[in-house]
Amino acid sequence: MSISRICNFFKCDNPEIEAMLNSENLPTDKVLAWSKLLEYDFFRIYSHHLILFAPPKAQSPKNIKENNSRRMPEFRKHLYTVEIIDFIMEQISNGEKTKLEVMRDYRIPKTTLYKWLEKYNNRKES
């Protein structure tokens, strides 16, 4: 992509674009603009990080009481994106992490991980 196109998109000159590219931090409106220009979701990187590494929400006594009064449990389905699953499967297949390390580091339930392994191996073989 030409620098002139980028400058036109941001309505600024070349040194300002270079300053953005060299900056350690960018305001979210600039990250959103770069995402649109490059047709790439830069926010997905951060949301994946939060899914994998954010601590689970602490439950207050009020939330615990409300949860106990419900008749049906709530399950968090489809929490992990395809990209996250592929990333984890790659770590296991490359030997970077063991299954136990993945379950411990990312707090992924054993049954979920083994379902992924079965599905991933079937997809890989076909």
TrEMBL record:
Q: Which organism is it from?
A: Chryseobacterium tagetis
Gene3D superfamilies linked to this entry:
Homeodomain-like
Could you identify this protein by its name?
Answer: Transposase
